[in-house]
Design brief:
This protein has four helices and two strands. The protein has 89 residues and is mostly helical. Helix 2 crosses helix 3.
Length: 89
């Protein structure tokens, strides 16, 4: 494993408990992900990320929620659901 990747993994392990909201992939998220995969033509992991982002966005207040990602299809699907993307103006 590359040194930079290993450093990032260690940093995530150290900071994980500081995250304000963590979305567990329970039944509701998994079912929503299946629906999103079908209706928005998304890949499995992308639909799971989007379902989790959608659930998390409903909990984040007062600051607006923004999804960070590098996949254009996922970004467009998120926008179609009304979610903002990091980098959008």
């Amino acid at each position: 494993m590359a040194a930079e990747t290993q450093r990032c993994i260690q940093q995530l392990d150290q900071e994980w408990s500081q995250f304000a909201s963590i979305v567990e992939p329970g039944e509701a998220i998994i079912r929503r992900a299946g629906h999103l995969a079908d209706s928005l033509n998304l890949r499995g992991y992308d639909s799971g990320h989007l379902a989790a982002a959608e659930a998390l966005s409903a909990r984040v207040t007062p600051a607006p929620f923004r999804l960070a990602g590098f996949d254009n299809g996922l970004a467009e699907a998120a926008r179609s659901l009304g979610l903002a993307i990091v980098g959008d103006h």
